[in-house]
Write a structure and sequence with these properties.
- Helix 1 packs antiparallel against helix 2 and helix 8 runs parallel beside helix 11.
- The strands form five sheets. Strands 1, 2, 3, 4, 5 and 6 form a six-stranded mixed sheet that branches. The protein has a six-stranded parallel sheet with strand order 9-8-10-11-7-12.
- The protein contains 23 helices and 22 strands.
- The mean pLDDT is 91.
- By secondary structure, it is an alpha/beta fold.
Length: 576
C-alpha cells in the first residue's frame, strides 16, 4: 500500500491528481482530507471526480490537504474494508478533534485474499503515525471506549438489515400518520445491541447526503422522507446504567453530528418538558419498577403520579412510552438481575400491540467462542445443564482451583507488557462492601496499600481483595485490575479477558443435583428483599451468565463452594 505526498486541497486538486498520481483516476483508492483539527476518510473508484465533488461541499472545503492511499492490486472490496478500518480507528484516535464522516453503515463481508490485505492495515497505520496523521497505537485505540462505542463500527449483515428495516418501517408509519410504533430488538450478550443502537442514533440524526456517505439509495430516500416529515426531530438514546451513560456522553460529544445532550437517563426522559419523536433504549431489561426500589421509590412514585400513571404500577418503560412517539428497545430477558427490573411478561404484552420484533443472533463479542459458547454458558447457569462438554477451541474457558492464581493470570493479561490489555476480575455480590466511601479513587497508592492496613472487602483462602472503588467508568480506571468489579460496573461492557469469582451465594447440591441460593451470603439487600427463592436463583444465575459473557478472548472462573467447583469442572477445563 502506498501513501501519496501531501496535496493541497483546492479548486485545482482534481486536475493535479489526475495528472500527477498514478492511481488518480479510474482506479479504486482510499483518501484522506484533513487540516490541523479535522479529517475525512473516503473511498472512490475515481479520485479525480470525487475530489471535485468534495470541493463543492462547504464542510469539506474547510480541509486543506489530501493524501491518496493506493495499491496496484486494490479492488472495491479492499477499499471498503480499508476505509472502514481507518474511519473506526481515526474516530477513536486523539490526533484529530473531529472526524467529518457520516455513517450509513459499513458491512462485514468476505473477499478474495482478505487476510493478506488486512495484515497490511497495521503497517499502514504506523506510516500514518510517521506522517503525524495518526497518534495512538492500534491496541490502545481498540481497548478504548471511543472505539468500542463508536457509531463508525462495521456492522454485520444482520445488524444492517435490522437497521434499514426499522428506518423503512418508521417512514411507513410516519406517512400513514400513525400515533406511534415500538420496535423490540432481542439479543443475547455480545450480539451488538449497543453498537446497533448507537449506529441508529447516528443514522437517524444525519440530516444530509454528505452526513450519510452511503450508496444505499433506498436507505437515503427513507431517511430524507423521515426528516421531511419531522424537520425538527427530537431524538435521544436512553441508558439506565450511569457508568455506561457517562461513557456514551463522552463518545457522542466527540462525534460529528451527535452531542452529549442526546444521551439520557430514564428520569431525565420523564422530567423532560418536551416529548420525543424517537427514543432508542439500550439495555431495556434494566428499566426499573417501584418494587425493591429502595431510596428511589419516593421519587419514582412522584414521577408516576405526574405522568398520570399508577403510583406503584407505573414503571420506567411506561415513562418512555408516554414521552415518545416511536421507541426502539434493545432487550434480553436473560440479563434481568433483580426484582426491581421490569418483568419479561411486560415486554411480552408489549409485543402484542403495535410492535415490530427483531432478533440479533450473530455473536460479535465472544467471536472465538461463538454462539455455541453463549448457549453453553446459559445452560451451565441454569437448571438444565449441558448434555455434553463443549470444545471452545481458541476461546479460553478455564476453571481454577486457586483464586489467587486466577486473579494473577488476569493481571498478567492486563499488564503493559501483554499484547492483550483490558482484562478485569469480577464477582457476584457475595461479600459486603466494607470499604465503600473510605478510599479515595484518585489515590492509587492508597488503594494498593489499604489491604496491608487491614481495609478490604473480600477474603478467600487468605487472599484479600477490594470491591471496585469507583463506580462510573470503573473498567478504564488506573487501578481497576487490582480491584474486583461487580455486575453494575460491567453489564453492557466488553473485556478482553474476564476472571469471574462465584461467591458462596450460589451453591450446588450433589444429592438433588441442583443449583441453589444461600441467601445469607448474598449482600444485595434490594436484590433479595421480598424476592422469592426461585426468582432470586434466576437473578443470580443471570448475573453469572452476564459476568461470564464479557470476555472477547477468554473467561477464567473460580467458585468458592467446593461442590459447585466440582460440578463446574465437569464442563470446564481446569487449571491446577
Amino acid at each position: 500500500m502506498d501513501i501519496s505526498n501531501e496535496i493541497d486541497f483546492d479548486s485545482t486538486t482534481s486536475k493535479r491528481i489526475a495528472a500527477e498520481e498514478k492511481f488518480g483516476k479510474e482506479w479504486p483508492v482510499v483518501y484522506l482530507l484533513y487540516n490541523e483539527k479535522e479529517v475525512y476518510v473516503g473511498e472512490t473508484v475515481d479520485a479525480r471526480i470525487r475530489m471535485a465533488q468534495h470541493y463543492e461541499n462547504s464542510e469539506r472545503r474547510k480541509l486543506k490537504y489530501a493524501r491518496i492511499i493506493s495499491g496496484g492490486e486494490f479492488n472495491k472490496s479492499v477499499i471498503l474494508d480499508l476505509e472502514a478500518f481507518l474511519i473506526s480507528h481515526m474516530s477513536a484516535d486523539s490526533k484529530f478533534e473531529k472526524l467529518q464522516n457520516g455513517n450509513a453503515g459499513h458491512q462485514q463481508h468476505n473477499y478474495y485474499n482478505q487476510e493478506y490485505y488486512e495484515s497490511q492495515f497495521g503497517e499502514l497505520w504506523k506510516r500514518l503515525q510517521n506522517f503525524k496523521l495518526a497518534k495512538e497505537e492500534i491496541d490502545k485505540i481498540e481497548n478504548s471506549n471511543l472505539f468500542k462505542y463508536s457509531p463508525y463500527k462495521t456492522l454485520t449483515s444482520e445488524q444492517y438489515t435490522i437497521a434499514t428495516g426499522i428506518v423503512s418501517m418508521l417512514r411507513q408509519s410516519i406517512e400513514k400518520q400513525e400515533k406511534g410504533k415500538t420496535f423490540i430488538i432481542n439479543g443475547k450478550p455480545g450480539t451488538g445491541k449497543t453498537v446497533l443502537g448507537i449506529y441508529l442514533m447516528k443514522l437517524l440524526a444525519s440530516q444530509t447526503n454528505y452526513d450519510l456517505d452511503s450508496d444505499d439509495e433506498h436507505l437515503i430516500e427513507n431517511l430524507q422522507a423521515i426528516h421531511y416529515a419531522l424537520p425538527k426531530m427530537k431524538i435521544g438514546i436512553v441508558v439506565s446504567m450511569v457508568n455506561l451513560r457517562e461513557i456514551l456522553k463522552t463518545t457522542f460529544g466527540a462525534t460529528y453530528g451527535l452531542n452529549k445532550g442526546m444521551v439520557y437517563g430514564p428520569s431525565e426522559i420523564a422530567n423532560s418538558k418536551e416529548d420525543f419523536d424517537i427514543l432508542i433504549v439500550d439495555e431495556a431489561h434494566r428499566l426499573k419498577t417501584t418494587r425493591n426500589a429502595g431510596a428511589a421509590i419516593g421519587k419514582m412514585q412522584e414521577t408516576n403520579t405526574e405522568l398520570g400513571l399508577g403510583k406503584n404500577t407505573g414503571n420506567q418503560l411506561d415513562w418512555i412510552l408516554k414521552k415518545s412517539r416511536f421507541q426502539i428497545l434493545f432487550y434480553d430477558k436473560e440479563q434481568s438481575i433483580k426484582r426491581t427490573d421490569i418483568d419479561a411478561t411486560v415486554f411480552s404484552e408489549l409485543e402484542k400491540k403495535n410492535t415490530e420484533v427483531f432478533d440479533l443472533e450473530t455473536q460479535i463479542r465472544c467471536k472465538k467462542g461463538g454462539e455455541q459458547y453463549i448457549k453453553y454458558m446459559r445452560e451451565i447457569f441454569s437448571e438444565n445443564p449441558p448434555d455434553a462438554i463443549l470444545d471452545t477451541g481458541e476461546y479460553e474457558l478455564k476453571m481454577f482451583d486457586d483464586v489467587y492464581k486466577m486473579t494473577e493470570a488476569i493481571k498478567k493479561k492486563d499488564d503493559d507488557d501483554s499484547e492483550v490489555g483490558l482484562s478485569r476480575n469480577l464477582a457476584g455480590y457475595a461479600w459486603p462492601w466494607v470499604t465503600k466511601g473510605k478510599i479515595n479513587p484518585q489515590n492509587c497508592e492508597e488503594t494498593r496499600e489499604c489491604i496491608a492496613r487491614g481495609m478490604y472487602d473480600i477474603e478467600i483462602d487468605g487472599h484479600k481483595y477490594i470491591w471496585n472503588i469507583k463506580y462510573d467508568g470503573w473498567v478504564n480506571t488506573t487501578n481497576a485490575v487490582n480491584e474486583i468489579g461487580c455486575i453494575h460496573t460491567i453489564q453492557g461492557f466488553d473485556l478482553n479477558y474476564a476472571g469471574v469469582i462465584i461467591g458462596n451465594e450460589l451453591r450446588y447440591d450433589p444429592v438433588s443435583k441442583k443449583l441453589y441460593v444461600d441467601k445469607d451470603n448474598y449482600y444485595d439487600i434490594n436484590g433479595k428483599n421480598k424476592t422469592e427463592e426461585k426468582d432470586l436463583l434466576k437473578y443470580i444465575l443471570n448475573i453469572y451468565f452476564v459476568l461470564c459473557t464479557r470476555g472477547i478472548y477468554g473467561t477464567y472462573i473460580y467458585a468458592c463452594d467446593d461442590a459447585l467447583r466440582k460440578y463446574l469442572k465437569k464442563y470446564i477445563k481446569t487449571v491446577a
